[in-house]
Amino acid sequence: MTVHIGAEPGQIAETVLMPGDPLRAEWAANTFLDDPVCVNRVRGMLGFTGTWKGNRVTIHGSGMGMPSLSIYANELIRDYGAKTLIRIGSCGAMQEHVAVRDVIVAMTASSLSTPSRGIFRELNFAPCADYGLLNAAVEAAKGTGAPCHVGGIYSSDVFYDERPDLTEMMTRHGILGVEMEAAELYNLAARHGVRALAVLTVSDHLLTKEALPSEDRQSTFGDMVQIALEAAFS
Ligand code: HPA
Q1: 15-232 adopts what CATH topology?
Q2: 79, 157, 204, 216: which one is catalytic?
């Protein structure tokens, strides 16, 4: 057990999928894994371990925002030996050619700040995905039929953004979408020598203001779980 995870030693797999929402972790575990066992309930942040095609997998919520993800990812890596961590989540699109329901595989994650800022100080570290995972996810995405974009994303500390000039700046620099967790996941993976990737579906569009209807959220989420599992074990 750690401060925030109640799992016994050995109950967490080396491969961990991390949706923001703990109830999505439960749905994904029950839908995709054989013999899922709930291994964490502390603070309602559900985690499940089971197998997919014979491979052990944990699906564990990250919560929203980088400080929350940092707590769980740190403990999963440092205390439970997680070696591959894949965020599966939603994002807001920032380019005209990216549409609601499309998949974004995040090659890099820009930010104004992350929980690692105090460690990096004056260094502008460039958080980036594991190339092997990224490549495998792009291949896996072809099977889902969803258009897949690969490139930079932005990890924000706020959902309710008051800086339209920042959005405009990032759109101009080719940033595909905005979410709130990937940059710190990539920082932690680099620090601890493990593999990380963020696979995202576009739930809303910052330029067109379109949003994914709630009935479509489950199916696009399922596509991401499938892509993440295939990428992890390719
Ligand atoms: N901003 C930040 N995070 C998000 C968004 C957004 O517009 N959409 C989905 N996650």
Answers
A1: Rossmann fold (3.40.50)
A2: 204
